[in-house]
Amino acid sequence: MEAKIYPWHQENFQRLVKMRETMPHAMVFHGPEGTGIEPFAFAWAKTLLCENLQKGQPACGQCSSCRWFDQGSHPDFVMLMPDALNDDEEGVPAAEEEDAPAKKTKAASKIIPINAIRQLHDFVGITTHRGGLRVILIHPVEAMTTEAANALLKMLEEPPAGTVFLLVTNQVGALLPTILSRCGKLAFPMPSREMALEWLASQEVDDAAMLLAQQGGAPLAALEASKGNANAKEQAAFLDCLSKPGLSASLKAAEDLQKLPVKLPITWMQRWLYDLASVHLAGTVRYHPDRLDMLTSLAGRLNLIKLMDMAKSVAQRRRVADHPLVPRLVLEDMLIDYLKLFAKRP
Ligand SMILES: [Zn+2]
Questions:
Q1: 95 and 108 in one domain?
Q2: Residue 200 placed within a domain
Q3: 135 CA → ligand 1 middle, Å
Q4: Ligand 1 centroid vs 13 CA: distance in angstroms?
Q5: Are residues 33 and 96 located together in one domain of the fold?
Q6: 211 and 300 share a domain?
Q7: How many structural domains does the chain have?
Q8: Which letter does DSSP use for residue 4 in this model?
Q9: What's the 125 CA to ligand 1 centre distance in angstroms?
């Protein structure tokens, strides 16, 4: 991961700089996906460790601490994340050697297991290598298993000296309240549309307004989508299926989409339902301006109360979506619920 502070996070950076001396030993950074909170947390960790810091500035990028950090080998920094997110191995504590070969063949884990937290005890048990702070970055915090969360809670209750915990999440409501209560909290805002568009323009993104709308205002997600959304074809097929609700098309869609991370179609469904409700109530859409006509015609046929119920149950599905036993069934269920929105009353 790259340490980076986006323009819409400058205010939060200055806020942290001001509170640095009185900063709680653990901070939760929370806010919407696709807005760059992880690279910010990474940049803040680098800043905390920088040995040549200028007042009000981020990490110098030149000192030996910064160089170690950039190489992913800073001895006083640990980043914990699920294997599935870990595309570059940087900054992750060494896995136990004996199961390293096996690890390559099994599917990357989407959780942070208790072992990862246990290894932190060794990390915090020794004096810091550079004589400064020690920083532990965990993201996303909700990926911790219950056992891991409880082990972390114990550490937060008796915080090791000179150690800063940075916990990143897009779902602050999913954290244990006992963990939250021991942390300072910093909310990361969705950037204004104007700021997001300006930034996307600086990245030479075409169709920025459309992509930004499709990604719910999240600029990094829009940039990612502009680089050729790897799943653009699947998404279009899914939206076609939602545009013409029918049983056989729904079953086929569930079949076709089961190979994707199930969170994706669930997110697409959430956005589609949002737009249906929005058209029904206000005649406007947020995510699919290119399908306004279809949404308007569907909204005229649907049962709004059922739609609201469905939106709730889809949000619940999304929360547990990391570990479905049979993704196809989850998708089938969801699509059949969707068909029911348009069923005529008996
Ligand atoms: Zn530095």
A1: yes
A2: yes
A3: 15
A4: 16
A5: yes
A6: no
A7: 3
A8: -
A9: 25
Pair 249, 239: CB distance under 8 Å: no
Separation of CA 50 and ligand 1 centre (Å): 4
Question: 82: CA distance to ligand 1 center in Å?
Answer: 28
Supply the DSSP string of 230-241, one letter for each residue.
TTHHHHHHHHHH
Does a structural domain hold residue 224?
A: no
CA of 117 to the centre of ligand 1 (A): 28
What pLDDT tens digit does each residue of the chain (346 aa) get?
788 999 999 999 999 999 988 889 999 999 999 999 999 999 999 999 999 999 889 999 999 999 999 988 899 999 999 876 664 433 333 333 333 333 333 456 788 999 999 989 888 877 777 778 999 999 999 999 999 999 999 999 998 889 999 999 999 988 899 999 999 999 999 999 999 999 999 988 878 898 899 889 999 999 988 876 668 788 889 999 999 999 999 999 999 998 888 888 998 999 999 999 999 999 998 888 888 999 999 999 888 899 999 999 988 887 776 666 788 898 999 999 999 998 775 4
Closest CA to 139 of 182, 78, 195, 192: 78
> Is residue 225 a part of any domain in this protein?
no
Domain of residue 159, residue span: 7-187
Domain of 93: which CATH number? Answer: 3.40.50.300
Is 71 in the same domain as 111? yes
From the list 6, 91, 99, 101, the residue with the least C-alpha distance to 45 is 91
Distance CA 17, CA 239 (A): 45
**55 and 124 fall within a common domain:** yes
User: What is the distance in A from the centroid of ligand 1 to the CA of 51?
Assistant: 5
